[in-house]
Design a protein that fits this description.
Organism: Plutella xylostella (Diamondback moth)
Helix content: 25-40%
Largest sheet: 5 strands, mixed
Shape: elongated
Number of helices: 15
Structural class: alpha+beta
Protein name: Integrase catalytic domain-containing protein
Strand order of the largest sheet: 9-8-7-10-11
Distance between the termini: 46 Å
Number of strands: 16
Radius of gyration: 41 Å
Length: 557
């Protein structure tokens, strides 16, 4: 667009307008390039008269730009940081200063203030266009205006501020008495809130609200602060918690009544414990076998945590209690090694007779997922009972190995004497059922006569009497102990299942939260009830299999 201006006017008095309505008095035009002004109030005013001498006019080029609210402002939606948006705006202002105003264009504190004013005006023009129009025309605000109770006014820079009624307060900064008005729904307002949220170390919401009120009046301030905190990825990761699926049904091993004790067993290790061998001390470890049905325990000692030691302990236990039909254990490397060694040993047997015998003693070994001790709570809880007894008896002493073996048998007897059912105090009531009833026929080593059928009392075959005792104990187990397993003690709510592609953080109790690994779910492994209980997560260290209780989903979007 071309404009003819007089040659006798100063260059600093010309500015561009979107409508190109340059109304100036005669003899106020100048010769020179067009120039952009920051302050709209410095525009020349008047009526353009046609009496100007054409010989005094020179053709200059006027750059037509958008209105003031969009001239120097980058698109805020492309920024996620208030400081980056400020500095990007400073770069654009610096470019204008250098190329057009011929100034230095150094980014300093003053330029940051100019950029902030420009961004604030941009946000206000988008959020309150009608209110700004009424205030510029010195009209009263509409009755439906959101700013009606704030008594807003325009300051010297055209920024909308709160009028308020605390003007008389002394020694109070002007920004606090007349804060800048912003709409909490605008992206620039949310960038400011996010900046203060980060500066407050992602802390209390009220701290951020208090900091905002020192300079800004944000509409819907608390919902805005809460929304920004909910969208903060650091806060999402820090607050992410696993949501366990509803507690599953008990496995068959926990309800296999009328089976030999230790038919279904759990296995775990504990220790170390010190023993005195000659004049030196050596370490010993305990191997705890737990019957999942009657909750009895059997303890073996091993000298080292190796595959060979564990296999020998397994054979000693099988010789006394019988081979387990199914064995459950955690995911320790020594336990996995034992499983591999046993399977390889069975496969290496060549003679058919030995193969048949091995099949007769074959044990299915099931491993629970890594870092999921609650899957093995049936034996983990009993390890705690064993450790509690040992702490009382040992008291950090190092006995000889023979003494420790005797002590393990005593602890085994104590734990197996604990009641499984309610202990009645009524006179004449039966004693509470204990694991020893299934191992010894009574709650302790002392034999206790039971109730028999009248026909059994006159039988001379003792095996029939023992069989009748076993049937009695199993009948009591079904009637008294089994109903106690019905209710779900925790994890009763249905939760959204983890899906393939979810962004998750892996909970690690041995590391700080900010060191927990993050990854993406690659596969889900549902249980028999179709609820996802185990997932495979791809992390920067590789593929990891974890239970759903150790995986926290990070909300995205």
């Amino acid at each position: 667009m071309e404009l003819y201006v007089p040659t006798s006017v100063n260059v600093a008095d010309v500015a561009t307008r979107e409508t190109c309505e340059f109304s100036v008095f005669e003899n106020e035009w100048f010769h020179g390039p067009a120039f952009l002004l920051d302050d709209e109030s410095s525009w020349p005013r008047g009526i353009l008269t046609p009496q100007v001498n054409e010989l005094d006019l020179e053709c200059v080029t006027v750059v037509q730009t958008n209105p003031l609210d969009t001239r120097f402002v980058p698109d805020p939606l492309k920024f996620s940081s208030w400081l980056r948006l400020l500095r990007s705006t400073c770069v654009m202002i610096s470019f204008i200063d250098i190329k057009i105003k011929k100034l230095t264009g150094v980014i300093n504190g003053d330029m940051m203030i100019r950029a902030e004013r420009l961004l604030i005006k941009y946000a206000q023009m988008q959020s309150f266009p009608d209110d700004l129009k009424d205030l510029k025309k010195k009209n009263t605000l509409n009755k439906s205006s959101k700013l009606l109770t704030l008594s807003p006014y325009l300051d010297d820079f055209g920024i909308l501020r709160v009028g308020g009624r605390i003007e008389a307060a002394r020694d109070v900064p002007a920004d606090m008495k007349h804060p800048v008005i912003l709409d909490g729904r605008h992206h620039i307002a949310r960038l400011i809130v996010k900046h203060l949220h980060i500066r407050a170390a992602h802390g209390n919401h009220e701290t951020v609200v208090n900091e905002l009120k020192q300079k800004y009046w944000v509409l819907k301030i608390r919902p805005t602060v809460k929304r920004v905190a909910m969208e903060c990825m650091v806060c999402r990761i820090r607050k992410a918690e696993p949501r366990p699926p509803r507690m599953g049904d008990l496995p068959e091993a926990r309800m296999a009544h009328h089976q030999r004790p230790f038919t279904f067993s759990g296995l775990d290790l504990f220790g170390p414990m010190e023993v005195t061998v000659g004049i030196r001390r050596e370490k010993r470890y305990g191997v705890l076998f737990t019957c999942l049905t009657v909750r009895a325990i059997h303890i073996e000692l091993v000298a080292t945590l190796t595959t060979d030691s564990l296999i020998m302990a397994l054979r000693r236990q099988a010789c006394r209690r019988g081979w387990a039909q199914q064995l459950f254990s955690d995911n320790g490397t020594n336990l996995r090694g034992a499983d591999t060694e046993l399977r390889r040993s069975i496969q290496d047997l060549d003679q058919q007779v030995l193969k048949s015998a091995a099949i007769n003693y074959g044990t299915t070994w099931t491993f629970i997922p890594p870092t999921s001790p609650h899957w093995g709570g049936a034996w983990e809880r009993l390890i705690r009972s064993v450790k509690a007894s040992l702490k009382i008896i040992l008291r950090e002493r190092a006995p000889r190995e023979e003494v420790l073996l005797t002590l393990m048998a005593e602890v085994e007897q104590i734990v197996n004497s604990r009641p499984l059912t309610h202990v009645s105090v009524e006179p004449g009531s039966s004693e509470a059922l204990t694991p020893n009833h299934f191992l010894l026929g009574s709650s302790s080593n002392l034999p206790v006569l039971g109730e028999f059928c009248e026909s059994d009392l006159y039988l001379r075959k003792q095996w029939r009497i023992s069989q009748r005792l076993a049937d009695m104990y199993w009948s009591r187990w079904v009637k008294e102990f089994l109903p106690e397993l019905i209710p779900r003690r925790k994890w009763t709510d249905e939760v959204p299942p983890i899906k393939v592609g979810d962004l998750v953080v892996i909970v690690d109790g041995n590391a700080p939260r900010n060191m927990w690994l993050r990854g993406v779910v690659e596969a889900v492994l549902p249980g028999k009830d179709e609820r996802v209980r185990v997932v495979d997560v791809r992390t920067r260290t590789g593929l990891m299999r974890r239970p759903a209780t150790r995986v926290a989903t990070i909300p995205v979007g």
